[in-house]
Amino acid sequence: MSSEKIRELISKMTLEEKASLCSGADFWHTKAVERLGVPAVMVSDGPHGLRKQAEEGDHLGINDSIKAVCFPAGCGTAASFNRELICEMGETLGNECQAEGVSVILGPAVNIKRSPLCGRNFEYYSEDPYVATEMAGALIKGVQSKNVGTSIKHFLANNQETRRMSSSSEVDERTLREIYLAAFEGAVINEKPWTVMCSYNKINGVYAAENETYLTKVLREEWGFEGYVMSDWGAVNARVRDLAAGLDLEMPSSLGINDRLIVEAVKHNIIEESIVDRACERILNIVYRYVENRDTKAVFNREKDHEKARKIAQETIVLLKNDQVLPLNEKDDIVFIGKYAKEPRYQGGGSSHINSFKVTSAWDAVSDKPNVTFAQGFIDYKDEIDENLIEEAVAAAKKAKTAVIFAGLPDAFESEGFDRSHMRLPNCQNELINRIAKVQPNTVVVLHNGSPVEMPWVNEVKGIIEAYLSGQAVGGACVDILFGKVNPSAKLPETFPLKLEDNPSYLFYPGEKDKVEYREGVFVGYRYYDKKKMDVLYPFGYGLSYTTFAYSNLTVSKEKLTDKEKVRVFVDVTNTGTVIGKEVVQLYVSDLESTVIRPEKELKEFAKVELKPGETKTVVFELGMRAFAYWNTGIHDWHVETGDFRIMIGKSSRDIVCSTDIRVESTIKLPFVYTTDTTIGDLMEDPKAKKYIDDLMKGSVLFSAEPEESNSSASEALSQDMLMAMMKYLPIRGVISFGDGSVTMEDLQKIVDELNKKEQ
Ligand code: BGC
């Protein structure tokens, strides 16, 4: 329906009808206006499968939903670094939504993984905003290509579960822009999600639901968002203020209570009726976009989608360690140890919990391999060592050529609604791994978790696979990788620190009462570990393959450019091994001469390429000004500082294989206001100020100190260089204190005024 028609329709509605459209009819539906033929539509969780609840609704995955397909969660999909694959996953989800009559799927969830403890990290993509926004964009593109909407969430700075409904995330402007907003920005601008879901928390004291700065100024005015903003379930705090700030749809229903508040507010001139009209227009635009593009032929083919889930899972599983133990040979005697071999942990708890129509475990997937046996090893409903289970597993491991332990975090350790209290695996699993490794040199650990864990046994085992929470087909995908049918190609979208205390948010997480200060600023994840040159367990971007890749011929289309131009970067990647494989080519940028405190390097591009043995492909990246910019809080905009930048190609943030330097010139003159507090050093950087410096020098005793060659004791103590270095930090007014009396405060003020005049 055209915008005019929608506006016409709204003009026929009573104020009560319009207000009613601004909240859900129940847990999952928008409201209808039957008198005017306006339909109600359904929304459903998301993000990695369809949680369509036909009966009693809830937002914590408590009641049953229809049987569906659980795809890999965000932690895994990000590890694929494969935009096309995740777009395909989106297309599949979009088709499922069409078949099931769901207008909007509630995802992707792009919140930054600030701390390994966040209970919901498994749903989120990365510690890096570029990875998060690119993978989210790919999912949105896929879903929306099927005329079904997405709801990118949870906007904004919702990075913990502790007190998520009342806590205020205290984040400075630059950090918000470079890290937390950036995770949304690219996806919103490039892929235009139909809806955005605001988060529960406050941002710098103001609830996300009523935060006009982000819901309207940033989202709509800067990023051009045109869909509707919905609340997270129960995130509305002051309905009328929220509506005015840009929160269009309240979810779920407030049983008419908040609708009545809206009506009253209009009647008492607290808000204009046009604000209600505006929300209705935004909501109905999306409702009709779905209703008028229904695919009545869409079929939810669960078996087919299960196979798709397996294909995606194959690219979400990261090979972390391989001391010539993998791939396994199916002729060998192999024992699968651990409960998760038969009952994998493949998804997290809470609103994203899918009622999987079937689950393929690793054990199911080796039913055709008679040499594989099983021992349970541990229980996971409580963290208690079961000696019998361990001894049985040890005995089985002794007899086998290789032991593969399927370990991970139990549901109770990791879920929406609460945070983890530590970064360890259950003790009973660590004990099992240690005991098996003692008797079996060929031990491989497969991990099922949505967020980093400490690995005290890292040096005792020969192989480690991070399977993340990779959906209902994870077992098949793990077996494909274990036996070399598939070459692993995923990379860590987050750093695995050695211990929790190393994490940059450690001292401030999860805050005090209802306040959490993001004091680490932009130094999240590898931005911190790399700058600090800290040892980590596994770095950001890391992951092994069964083949090897070599990089060569890194070139750029120009070595000098302005911040208005783009530069193309070319690099050749060759498969130097013996099996076909995929490599994630990572491009990092480092600002070599910054006056701003910046990370040592930041990921600015990535590409995944498939190469046959011996094959070479040239990967081409294009970088614009954002690849070099930081957020300048003086001009409240992105800014590139003139200077040299290093373009680096890496296999991880810690394994840079080639680099080249370019120069970028800024075309923006930053405003600078001189005062008598301006330092001599700052003055010296401005060529126009030179003549004043000469005047000032004449009046300063310090400047007329004896030259270096002199033998006086003063010159021994203070060389000319030292003198100059000190002068750099002397405020202009210091000339009065250290001068010969020839320069007065009035003279200085005149100089300052002159300089400021010239600046205009
Ligand atoms: C979650 C959202 C979810 C909603 C509906 C909330 O508790 O934070 O991610 O989409 O419930 O289930």
Give an overview of the whole structure:
With 760 residues, the protein is of the alpha/beta class. Among the domains are: 1-40 and 253-293, no CATH class; 302-532, Rossmann fold (3-Layer(aba) Sandwich), CATH 3.40.50; 549-665, Sandwich (Immunoglobulin-like), CATH 2.60.40; 680-759, no CATH class. α4 (83-100) packs antiparallel against α12, α5 packs parallel to α7 (182-191) and α12 (302-314) packs across α17. 31% of the residues lie in helices and 18% in strands. The mean pLDDT is 95.
Layout of secondary structure:
Layout: H1 3-11, H2 15-21, E1 43-44, H3 74-80, H4 83-100, E2 104-105, H5 129-144, E3 149-155, E4 168-170, H6 173-180, H7 182-191, E5 195-198, E6 202-203, E7 206-207, H8 212-222, E8 228-231, H9 239-245, H10 257-267, H11 273-291, H12 302-314, E9 318-322, E10 334-337, H13 339-342, H14 362-365, E11 372-375, H15 387-399, E12 402-408, H16 427-439, E13 443-448, E14 463-466, H17 474-482, E15 515-517, H18 526-531, E16 549-556, E17 560-562, E18 567-575, E19 581-591, E20 602-611, E21 616-623, E22 630-632, E23 637-639, E24 643-652, E25 655-665, H19 680-684, H20 690-698, H21 713-717, H22 720-728, H23 734-738, H24 745-759
Parallel strand pairs: 1-2, 2-3, 3-5, 4-6, 4-15, 5-8, 10-11, 10-12, 12-13, 13-14, 17-25
Antiparallel strand pairs: 6-7, 9-14, 16-18, 18-21, 19-20, 19-24, 22-23, 24-25
Helix pairs in contact: 1-11, 2-10, 2-11, 4-5, 4-12, 5-7, 12-17, 15-16
The structure holds beta-D-glucopyranose.
